[in-house]
Specification:
The protein is α/β, with parallel strands linked by helices and about 375 residues long. About 25% of the residues lie in helices and about 25% in strands. It has 9 helices and 21 strands. A 7-stranded mixed sheet has the order 3-2-1-4-19-20-21, covered by helices on one side. It is globular. The two termini are about 25 Å apart.
Length: about 375
Amino acid sequence: MTAEAIRGRLVLDDAIVPGEIRVDDGVISAVEPDGRGSAGPLLAPGFIDVHVHGWGGHSAMGDAAALDGMARALLRQGVTSFLPTAWTEPIPELAEFAERLRTWIPAAPRDGSSPLGFNLEGPFLSEAKKGAHDPAKLRAPADVADSDLEPLLDGLRLITIAPEVPGALDLIARLTARGVRVSLGHSAATLAEANAGYAAGATTTTHLFNAMSGVDHHHPGLAVAALSNDDAYVELIADGNHVDPSLLPIITRSKPPSRLMLVSDALSLAGTGLSRATLGGLEVEIVGGRVTLAGTSTLAGCVIALDTAVRNVTSSGIPLPAAIAAAATNPAAMLGQADRGRIAVGLRADLVELDDGLRVRRVMRAGEWFEGAGTS
C-alpha cells in the first residue's frame, strides 16, 4: 500500500482545522496544519455504528452473503466499522448467529465496513418495554444456565439487558468481567434499579428515551439515571422520529460530550425503497418515514445511516466536531477500540470525505478509498 497525503478541513476533537493527513500502509502517519486545506473537503474519522440490524436489503442475521452486502452498503454511508446486531431470538438461534459471525468476520470484504464483533439486543429485556421484540422469546437471566450462554460470548462486544429482570445484575457483572460491554435498555426499571445496573458494570444505554422508563417527576426511571450519570454513554437514534429534536438540548446539557453516541438501529429495509419486511418473525412497515410494527404505532428500528444522523443533529444545533465525535470517537471509546475513531497519528486510516452538505463523497478504509453514497 502506497503513502498518500490528503488535504482538507480536518474535523478534529474540538475544532475544524485546514490541514494535511499523511497515510502510510493504512495508518495515519502525520497530521499537520496546512492552509491549502481550506479549499478542500471536510475530512472526518470514519463512523462507527454499534447498533445496526441491516442495510441495503441485507440482514445482520443472514448468511455470509447478506453480511457482505450489509458491510459494503454501510461503507458507502461513511460507516467504516460496525457491530452487526441481532434482535431477540431463542438462545440456540442466537448461538448460531454468533457462530456465523465468528466464521464470517475473518473473511469480511475489504470493500466493506469492518466488523468489530457483534451486538445482541435481547433476549434479556423487560416484557413491559419490549418494543418490537417478540415477547414469547424474552428470557430472564436467572432462568438461563451459564453453559447456554457460553456459546454467545466469543466475539460478543455489546449486549442490551434490562437491569430489573431476575438475575440481571449478576449477569451484568459476569459479562463485564469477561470484557463485554453491557447496555441498559428495553427496561421499566425504577431509578434505583437503573442505577444498580450501572453500578454492576453497565457502560451504556440502548436508544435513549425509547423503550425505557422515562422522565416522570414522581417516578423517574432509566432515562433519568442515564442522563444524570456522567460516566454512562447513551445511544441516540437521530432520525427525528425516535426522539423529537426539541429534546436534543436537554441531552447535550445533561451528558458530557464524550458520552453521546449516534446509532442507526437500521433495518435491512434501509436504503432499499421498500416499505415492508419481517423482523424476528414480526411484520414491520414504513409509513411516513416511521418504521413500526405493522398496524401499530410501535417503533421498530429506522432506515437511516450515521451520515444522515450527523446531518440531522448538526441541523439541530450540535457543532460538527461534537456530531462527528458522537458518530466515531465516542463509540470507539465505549468499546475500548483504541486504534480508530479519531484523526490522530498512529490510528487506523479510516476517514470520511464530506461535502459542505455533509454528504459522503469518499470513504477511506484502512488507507484505501471507496466511493461514497453522496456521489450517486
